[in-house]
Write a structure and sequence with these properties.
mainly alpha
Length: about 130
């Protein structure tokens, strides 16, 4: 039986670039899905004012150019954003229902091609 070679096996730089591309895409999907969950939870009439304030603060921090760790810092720049989004999601998790999840999932699917459902389920599992 002949062993198939990976197309990146001979060039370690291409292998690294491919790995980073896949990982950054996964992180982008998770951040986008988290932000969409917050956005659609904010739009629910059942979401109380205090929860909407947490959602606004979390999304504002994500979009703000001023961060605790600058987003331009390689690989570490978005860790504070992910932490703030996670805090916001866990705090208002009881206001994220199946309608919110479905709307967020559909939006993320329209923004990215080849979304792995497991990435979305990982975010949902933390709620």
């Amino acid at each position: 039986m002949k062993c198939r070679k990976n197309k990146y096996s001979k060039d370690p730089i291409k292998k690294l670039v491919h790995f980073l591309k896949v990982r950054l895409n996964t992180v982008g999907v998770k951040i986008s899905y988290s932000a969409m969950l917050l956005f659609y939870a904010y739009n629910r009439s059942e979401t109380p004012r205090w929860a909407k304030n947490i959602i606004l603060g979390s999304l504002a921090y994500l979009l703000s150019p001023v961060d605790a760790i600058p987003d331009l810092t390689p690989l570490l720049g978005f860790t504070d954003d992910i932490g703030v989004l996670s805090f916001g999601l866990v705090t208002i998790a009881c206001y994220i229902n199946e309608d919110v999840r479905a709307a967020a999932k559909n939006k993320v699917m329209s923004l990215y091609k080849n979304v792995d459902e497991e990435d979305l389920l990982e975010v949902d599992a933390q709620l």
